[in-house]
Structure formats: structure tokens, C-alpha cells
Amino acid sequence: MAAAIAGGSGPVAVDAERASGFRYSQRAYLVQLRRAGAGSALVDPIPLRGELGPLAEALDGPEWVLHAASQDLPCLAELDLRPASLFDTELAGRLAGLPRVGLGPMVENLLGLGLEKGHGAADWSRRPLPEDWLVYAALDVEVLVDLRTVLTRMLDEQGKLDWARQEFEAVRTAPPSPPRAEPWRRTSGIHKVRRPRPLAAVRELWQARDSLAAERDIAPGRVLPDAAIVDAAVRNPDSPQALAELPVFRGRSQRRLARYWFDALRRAADLPETELPRGAATTDGPPPVARWADRDPDAAARLAAARAALATVSEQHDVPVENLLQPDLLRRVCWTPPTDGDLPAALAAGGARPWQVELLAPLLEPALATRAR
Questions:
Q1: Based on the domain organization, do 301 and 246 belong to the same domain?
Q2: How far is CA 337 from the centre of its chain?
Q3: Domain residues for 199?
Q4: How far apart are CA 319 and CA 336, in angstroms?
Q5: Structure confidence by residue, pLDDT tens digits, 35-88
């Protein structure tokens, strides 16, 4: 198969299927490939870990065509499969101003074809994979190169092809996302927990769940739902038996783990005050935008003017605002404008691409001079 891919011509359509929602890991459980002259191929990477060298060599050179590449590149990199260049059809659709950029709608609108639906959220770690799942997976790469051809023409006609190439390269070379400092704070429903001691209970339960999920390679939400973590932290049961009376914990599997979860609650209860979590997460960025008007009215005025400028550019070029400039970067330069006045350098240092700097810096400079009335 690797020899066939290497002997083909043109770009290679690439896709990967994970088991999000079922497994703890984000590994690829299926890799789909298609290249002119080689046909389509489905690869089960699980029994081949460490043995994909011939495939990596065949794929090192041709342009890869992916849809929403940033979702698949990390799990493919775990297999030592990395593109030398890429074309992202979803990102291309955004830059081209398409109203719907899911693969199905784009294929239907631009190619006049309908993609079979129904297995995108399936448990791809299942073995053997059903035949209809394999057909579904293969269809995802059947039309990617044709879609690339149409999108390339659209972007070229709109004068955005160079923009797209810069965006694709930024996706390809993006470093791995750093781990979150306090990932437990993303527990759904945590806004109901305000005092430090119950917050510590959420943290201990989250960490206990994460350890168990990683050990069993099961999605954390399947080990214990977020709602159960918050409920236990708020109610603070005084024994494993009392914990087992709470919703979710009454189930057979959770009753068996009652002592495990209760021990996490006890660890939180025994922490000294100095080790309790703060009420709000620490951050190195600006405060929430809702507080700007009170804390720095001029910064709030700068942000409003900058957003208005971006909205105008978005309408003129038919590009979503979030694709014109990263929202976090916009907030940072509005909260703390560059002291040397070199906005283009500040945007570039924050990760803006050359086309974004060239297009936006002249419009944002007057916005950053805005003051509150």
C-alpha cells in the first residue's frame, strides 16, 4: 500500500478517526488515504504502531489534503506521520466566505454530491469495524482532492489564495498545545461551586477520575459525569454510604468505587487553608472583557473600536472575524498596546500571519488610539 501511495500522483487526501467520548486517549484508530493512481486505503494503526515507516516515507513529500486539519494532525503525528505541506478544506471554506464549512455541506454545495452520514461520533476503537463504517470512512477521502481543486479556484478568484497558504502553513507548523494549568476548572457546572473547600473537592474528584480514566483508557465522562463531581462537592457527604445515595453514585459500578471517590473528598477536606484553590483561575492575559469598562475604560474603548474595524473588514472581504485575527491576540493588544508603537511587530509576535498584519495593522492603529469619553 505504501508503494502504491508513493507511486501515485498529486496530493494525498488524509483523514483519521478517533474514539472521542469513548476512550481517554486521542489516538487515531483508523487512517484513511487516497491518491490518484493509488486508489483509497484504510489503515488500522493500532497493531502497526512503530511499523509505519514505509507509509511515513511515502507520505513525506506530497501535499496532504485534510478537512479541519488541526483536529487530526496531533494523532497522526503520534504515528510519525507528518505533512511537508497541506491544504485544509475547512479553513479554505472559511476564507472563501462559505456559510457552511462542514465536509458534508461543502461537498453538496460545491460538488453536487451527498456524503453518507451516521458514524462520525462512533466508537472507532471497536474491533472488528463494521463494513458500513469502513465505507463511511473511505467516503471521507474520496472527494477531498476534488474539493481542493474547486476551493483553490475560488480562493484564487477572490485574491485570497496566498492568505490561505499562509494559514495552512501556520496550522502545519503549530506547536503542540501546552497542557492547561488547571484543567479541572473546565468541569461543567463548576460555576455552582464558589467557596475554596468545595472547589478543592472538585479538584480532587477530577484528578481521581482522570487517573482512573487514563489507567482504563476510558473517556473521563464515562467514568464519572461532571455533574456528579459538582453534586458531590456541593453536598459534601460524610461517609461512603452517604455518597452512594447521591444520583449517579447509586449505580452498581459507582457503588463499587464509593470508597475511591470518598477518599478524594476526604483529601480535599484535610487540606490546609494555604493549599486550597483560589476562587478564580489565574491567567497571564487580560481580565474578562465584561470587567474592562470598570477596570480600564480606555481599554474597553479601544476594544470596541478595534472590533468595529474588524467587522468592517470581515464584511468587505467575506471572511469570519475570528479568521481575520485570533480573538485572544486582539484582546491582548487592546488591553496593553505596544509601548513602542510598533503594532505590526506586536501582531506578528502574537502569531498573526503576514497577510493579517498587512491588512489589519493600518486599521487597528487608530483604534488603539481611542480613549473613553
A1: no
A2: 28
A3: 183-275
A4: 26
A5: 999 999 999 999 998 899 999 999 999 999 999 999 999 999 999 999 999 999
